[in-house]
Amino acid sequence: MALNIRTVQPKDAKALREIYAPYVETTWVTFETEVPDVEEIRRRVETYHFQLGFPYYVAEQGGETVGYAYAHPFHERAAFRYTAETSVYVKQGFEGSGIGTKLYQVVLNDLKQSGFHKVIAILGYPNEASKRFHEKLGFRETGVLHEVGYKFDCWLDAGYFEKVL
User: Fold this and answer.
1) Which residues are CB-neighbours of 81 under 8 A, at least 6 positions away?
2) HSE-up of residue 33 (Cα within 13 Å, Cβ side)
3) Contact 101, 90 (CB under 8 A)
4) 160: which residues sit within 8 A by CB, 6+ positions away?
5) How far apart are CA 131 and CA 146, in angstroms?
6) Residue 19, φ and ψ in degrees, nearest 5
7) 115-158 pLDDT per residue, tens
8) Where are the alpha helices (DSSP H) in 3-98?
9) Which candidate, 41, 52, 61, 25, places its Cα nearest to that of 151?
10) How far apart are CA 24 and CA 27, in angstroms?
11) Any bridge partners for residue 76, and if so which?
């Protein structure tokens, strides 16, 4: 089936939440510990994409939303304005199908065309699959912050990755 990647719309919030929830509930991929409600997801879409103008895309296959990727400010200070932080989430059962790579490439291209210089990805560790994924896309690990998150009754590390656009 063909993959369609399009710009996010506020009406996508429910589907995005359904994709994101298992990551919050069962993995270290995100440091969120409670699944945000649909209104909070909609607020993030509105803020990051429609108010701040950052790229935010969804992938559809056979009429089903199967992933999404977006960028948001890395830091609020003005000197960081050419640096963005990125995230990508793929629906369970579709991992390893290339959807995440395609989504990420669209976001990275959009950022580059918009004049961004650098992209940051922060990975919950341990997570070898995400580490390999980001390295494949040209990111390089720049450091690890040890025991900065606490989830599932254990301390988590955060790996910092960067890519020059």
Assistant:
1) 73
2) 8
3) no
4) 120, 121, 122, 123, 141, 142, 143, 144, 145
5) 16
6) -75, -40
7) 999 999 999 988 899 999 999 999 999 999 999 999 999 999 99
8) 13-26, 38-45
9) 25
10) 6
11) none
Structure confidence by residue, pLDDT tens digits, 86-123:
999 999 999 889 999 999 999 999 999 999 999 999 99
CA terminus-to-terminus distance, the chain:
31
* Domain at 160, CATH number: 3.40.630.30
> How many angstroms separate the CA atoms of 145 and 156, rounded?
9
Q: What's the domain count of the chain?
A: 1
Length of the chain: 165
Quick one: which of 122, 121, 109 has its CA closest to 156?
A: 122
* Residues 58/6, Cβ–Cβ less than 8 Å: yes
Which domain, by its residues, includes 84? 3-164
